[in-house]
Amino acid sequence: MSAVAKTSGHRPLPFNAGSHSPLSLHDRTSSERLLPVSLSVVNGQRTRIAGGSGHLGVKMVSGQSAATSVWASSPLKILVPRPRGQSVWAYLSSYGGGLVAGDETSVTLELAARTRCFLSTQASTKVYRNPAGRPCGHRLKATLGEGSVLALAPDPVQAFAGSSYTQRQEFHLASGSGLVLVDWLCSGRMARGERWVFDCFRSRNDIFLGGERVFLDSLLLNSTEVPLTGAHGMGRFNCLATVLLIGEPLRTASAKMLQDFATRPVTRAASLLYSASPIAHGTLLRLAGEEVEEVGREIHRQLAFLSGFLHDDPWSKKW
User: Fold this and answer.
1) Residue 43 lies in a domain
2) DSSP per residue over 96-160, as a string?
3) Based on C-alpha coordinates, what's the Rg of the chain?
4) Which of 23, 25, 42, 111 has CB 3.0 to 4.6 Å from 148, enough for a Cys bridge?
5) Contact (Cβ atoms closer than 8 angstroms) between residue 101 and residue 137
6) Is residue 32 part of a domain?
7) Is residue 296 part of a domain?
8) Among 61, 59, 81, 60, which residue's Cα sits nearest to residue 69?
């Protein structure tokens, strides 16, 4: 049976929200016991929540970033291997290893002032075929306190043939906070000959700074209306990626990224295409690659500076 968990107070969680702990229920305090999937403990009271919902709250505790509030309901899981330290590391996952028709996940994220958080996924987000056209997707709303930094760098979305997926992410940044955002997808199960044959893929990112919208990016790929394969579609490319740096803490990294790509030579028929552009308060990078691994390596190279913010390299310990 899946479960929901939440703690009150400022103690990091000793287990992963949305999964069973090796400890028995009798080994937990009353605020840490597993509850039925439809319930969560909020301020000492049980509250019903929708399936697929989750929350991660990060606050400063004794000078360190700490996950003080974590809960999730099936099919969503939130894993927190580093609940406290110079930065909090968390990973989104699911019980079935992907999203099937009708699965909709929704995550809220709250970072208090001066905290640091790295949020990724346990693996690529697999989206299975959806012949009935039922809703399937993911929503995220993040609120960043003054001086905080969030790095949202999931693995790519992998939409299978006949699938449909909608993603909507919204970020509200206070003055002096910073956001690193990675949003990318691959063509599907290339080993099975599937390339850009999902039915529909939608992704939208809205970013607000001081209450004002400063960035909006929307992507729609619909193979039922226009074929995505062929020379006039995606051509030889199997991966698309967007990388965004925005906010005062990332000013130096943004300028360095622009300078790096401004001095790169342009190669005919290159396996990796890129475009780096200045935007209000940051830099926008777009990538298109023939191989997912090549795009991933370039993303990691451009985000190597994150080890300074997180005081460690999260990718070096993932695999």
Assistant:
1) no
2) TSSB-TT-EEEEEEEE-TT-EEEEEESS-EEE---TT----EEEEEEEE-TT-EEEE-PPPEEEP
3) 20
4) 111
5) no
6) no
7) yes
8) 59
Q: Residue 236 — φ and ψ, nearest 5°? A: -85, -5
Q: How many domains does the chain have?
A: 1
- Alpha helical stretches, state H, 142-277: 251-262
Cβ 57 vs Cβ 65: under 8 Å? no
In terms of DSSP H, where are the helices of the chain?
251-262, 292-302, 306-310
Q: What is the full per-residue pLDDT of the chain (319 aa) written as tens digits?
A: 334 444 434 444 444 555 433 333 233 333 333 333 445 555 566 666 778 999 999 999 999 999 999 999 999 999 999 999 999 999 999 887 789 988 999 999 999 999 999 999 999 999 999 888 888 999 999 999 999 999 999 999 999 999 999 999 999 999 999 999 999 999 999 888 899 999 999 999 999 999 999 999 999 999 988 889 877 889 999 999 999 999 999 999 999 999 999 999 888 899 999 999 999 999 999 999 999 999 999 999 999 999 999 999 988 866 5
Q: In b/e form, how buried is each residue of 102-114, taking b as 16+ CB within 10 angstroms? A: ebbbbbebbbbeb
> Distance of CA 311 to CAs 56, 111, 245, 305, Å?
20, 17, 18, 10
**230: in domain:** yes
Q: How far is CA 299 from CA 259, 261, 288, in A?
A: 16, 13, 11
Domain span at residue 226 reads: 52-317
Cα–Cα distance for residue pair 205/40, rounded to 1 Å = 28
Residue whose C-alpha is closest to residue 236's, from 203, 202, 261, 270 = 270
Amino acid making up residue 286: R
Comparing CA positions, the residue from 221, 181, 176 lying closest to residue 205 is 181
| Residue showing tokens 């790095």 | 151
Burial of 86 (0-12, 13-18, 19+ CB in 10 A): middle
